[in-house]
Amino acid sequence: MEGPIGSGKTSLAEILGRTLSARVVLEQPDDNPFLGAFYRDRARHAMSTQLFFLLQRYAQQGELAQGDLFSSGGVVADYVFAKDRLFAVLNLSNDELALYDRIYQMLKPRTVAPDLIVYLQARTDVLMDRIRRRARPDEKPIRSEYVGEVAAAYADFFFSYTESPLLIVNASDIDFVANPEHQRELIDVIRNAPAGTSHWSRG
Question: How many domains does the chain have?
Answer without folding.
Answer: 1
